[in-house]
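wait is this the right file?? whatever heres the structure
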């Protein structure tokens, strides 16, 4: 019911459209949504990341536009992650889905609070404030988007915890791994690294004003000639990736 309610409020080309909701004569609730081509972004990222900078910029920009549409509608997604994004590699088209645990920004603070030690979302992509009992704002979705960008750029995540307990502790007490230390032999420009890490700041007010500001800054930095500083000179994936850049 929550997904149906919020899904009908967010109308955007990059958001999976809610077509119809209702209840059958037998009392079963149903939700009909748009068919999105492609595959879950998580699977594509596992196979293909690190992605080329221009592809990362395209994907992040589309996600930001979809999330911004939710924010304009007064909705915080709260579970932004690759599993909730459809991606078509052929067209580089992205579609956001699953508003099942979203919350409304016009809800009372009590309704939007989570108790310290509890959280709503997916631990690997959740913003630190969601773990400490604070009111979750659109800045939390920006943090999640920055985590997705980090994954697409490096094939790794900002934290390397091996258990949920360890992850919980790291999110609340440690800074994320700098982007340029995430993967040996892969280095981005200082601008790219600084932009991603700013959106991953623990304090929401230290991040960008909104998701579009973050995606625009990252897109501009990734379009610069020096966006990719160092790639391993050897063979394998990194050698192939360097060859692609030389051809471009």
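ok assuming it is, sequence goes like this
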């Amino acid at each position: 019911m929550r997904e149906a309610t919020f899904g009908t409020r967010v109308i955007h080309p990059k958001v999976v459209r809610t077509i119809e909701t209702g209840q059958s004569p037998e009392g079963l609730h149903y939700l009909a949504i748009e068919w999105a081509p492609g595959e879950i972004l998580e699977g594509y990222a596992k196979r293909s990341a690190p992605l080329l900078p221009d592809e990362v910029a395209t994907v992040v920009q589309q996600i930001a536009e979809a999330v911004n549409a939710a924010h304009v509608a007064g909705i915080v997604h709260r579970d932004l992650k690759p599993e909730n994004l459809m991606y078509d590699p052929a067209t580089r088209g992205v579609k956001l889905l699953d508003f099942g645990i979203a919350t409304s920004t016009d809800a009372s603070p009590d309704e939007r609070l989570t108790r310290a030690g509890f959280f709503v979302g997916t631990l690997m992509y959740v913003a630190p404030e969601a773990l400490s009992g604070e009111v979750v704002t659109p800045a939390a979705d920006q943090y999640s988007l920055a985590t997705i960008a980090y994954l697409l750029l490096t094939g790794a995540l900002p934290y390397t915890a091996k258990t949920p307990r360890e992850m919980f502790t790291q999110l609340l007490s440690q800074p994320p791994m700098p982007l340029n230390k995430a993967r040996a032999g892969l280095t981005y420009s200082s601008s790219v690294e600084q932009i991603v890490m700013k959106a991953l700041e623990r304090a929401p007010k230290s991040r960008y004003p909104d998701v579009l500001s973050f995606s625009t800054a990252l897109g501009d930095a990734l379009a610069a000639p020096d966006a990719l500083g160092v790639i391993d000179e050897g063979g394998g994936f990194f050698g192939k990736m360097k060859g692609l850049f030389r051809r471009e």
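DSSP finds nine helices and nine strands in the chain. so i think its the right one actually
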